[in-house]
Amino acid sequence: MKSFYITTAIDYVNGSPHLGHAYEKVLTDTIARFRRQMGDRVHFLTGVDEHGQKVQASAKKKGIPPQQFCDEVSEEFRALLPQLNISNDDFIRTTDERHKKVVRAVLQQLFDQGEIYKAEYQGFYSTRQEQFLQEKDRLEDGTWPEIFGEVSEIVESNYFFKLKQYQAWLVDFLATNENFIFPAYRQKQVQEFLKEPLNDLCISRPRERLEWGISLPFDDGYVTYVWFDALLNYYSAVVDRPEIWAEAHHVIGKDILVPPHAVYWPIMLKAAGISLPKGIIAHGWWMTRGAKMSKSTGNALNPLDLVAEFGTDAFRYFLIREMNVGQDSDFTREQFLVRYTSELANNLGNLVNRTLNMTTRFAAGVVPAAEVGAGEATGAGDLEKVLQDLWTKTRDEFIPQCEGYQFHTALERVMVFLTETNAYIEKRAPWKLGKSTEAKDLALLRTVLATIAEALRLAVAAVQHVMPSTTEKINAVLGYTPGAVWRDELTWGSKLTGAKVAGALVLFPRPAPPEKAPAPVKAG
Ligand code: MSP
């Protein structure tokens, strides 16, 4: 069994989780579930990033100690996971002792190896980004970009990590590992970034300025820079399980690719003699009218509101169906409703209802066996074969698409298959066949019922990693228990022959109509 280790970024706990955070969890969960279905031994880690200036400031604003603040907000992030049906195996907090221990050990090791030195720094500092700035970060008019917030000039002694001396190595590494970062165009961006010389990385903050962090093991007048601390979570969580670490994949947003994940992280690992992750998957952003959804701009949606209104699986489906991993996408309620209604309710929901109704009505609720050539016998052609061939083609494309994180296209193909299955029902009109007394019509009717039940079973197996509880519910009403090997479930067969189906299942109810707009105030 092959190991597969997958992580999300760890979220800052200076505000409540929003749709962007939820997306990353759902995407990572989709990958984790898919790999499990493919037979890998998956380890899935998520967690929270609790140290640093932002958290210290938020706690102060609330008038409570930072640890108490972290305990409260981290609980909110943790509680989101079951609501989204996230199948993580572990949840790490950077205030966990197991994590702090590893951060201190790595720092001490790098210090002992001479990879870390002390020097005086004079320059500009962004408190919001907790980052030292350079002249090249300025805008053309001499001001600092908005994202840095307030920028002040400071002089202080700090510890620096020798990043610069690994630049040539990293350039070479990326040239020989072309698929390290997904999508490929993001790897190109990193390579562009590395055309400029790197500076050594300041990895300490004087305690007077920032208290809320892990003390440097070799100088407790300082705490560790939050990124140095945070990145190590991926490793600290599995420090005693090298076989898992060897298969690490990180899912992150594009905003934290360069430089933290694509430059600092590989170099930190290289310097410490730890093997590198296998890959980084950088997704895009959910936007609201062209702007990144974020708590600071106040345009963020609460994922739990959508889950409460439409259910976990519809929410998961929309995020994965709508987003092409790597690119940005605008979130609109209208688009959500379009997909919910046309794809989930009218396409999938409808096929479920028709299958259950017609099997109950025409076959006493027991899925009959298909009869080869039944269509041709009535002179109506072999539409069953056409549908089966479409399935085989869909399945053959679907697996490589999922392996390549093209889940949106994979889902689109399944939807096409469902549309074609519903169209097949229209063409065969089983309600007419049911009125006939001719043996060949009744044979065709049995074949139609067997065909649509099998088509439904297959489509439902294919969306399992995206909508796990919907798959479970539909299998239950089909009276079906899937086998242990998921891939074997994807072959057209007669797995449902003789299954006793339930009468009905309401899956995607019509959403309540929007509240009435207030009546316009009369003039005069
Ligand atoms: N704490 C750091 C990550 C440290 S990882 C060692 C951080 N936290 S964050 O809370 O700001 O962001 C967490 C993740 O959510 C990031 O991967 C980020 O890209 C993602 N998202 C935040 N807003 C987003 C959207 N609007 N859309 C999609 N994902 C975005 O950065």
Summary tags:
single chain, Isoleucyl-tRNA Synthetase, Domain 1, seven-stranded parallel beta sheet, 17 strands, 524 residues, four-stranded antiparallel beta sheet, 2 domains, elongated, alpha/beta, Rossmann fold, binds 5'-O-[(L-methionyl)-sulphamoyl]adenosine
Task: Kindly describe this structure.
The chain is an alpha/beta fold and 524 residues long. It has two domains: 281 residues, Rossmann fold; 159 residues, Orthogonal Bundle (Isoleucyl-tRNA Synthetase, Domain 1), CATH 1.10.730.10. The strands form four sheets. Strands 1, 2, 3, 4, 8, 13 and 14 form a seven-stranded parallel beta sheet that branches. A four-stranded antiparallel beta sheet has the order 6-5-7-9, covered by helices on one side. It has a three-stranded antiparallel beta sheet with strand order 10-12-11. A hairpin with a 2-residue loop joins strand 15 and strand 16. Helix 15 packs antiparallel against helix 16. The chain starts with a strand and ends in a 47-residue tail after the last helix. It binds 5'-O-[(L-methionyl)-sulphamoyl]adenosine (MSP). The site of 5'-O-[(L-methionyl)-sulphamoyl]adenosine has 21 residues, from strand 2, helix 1, helix 7 and strand 13.
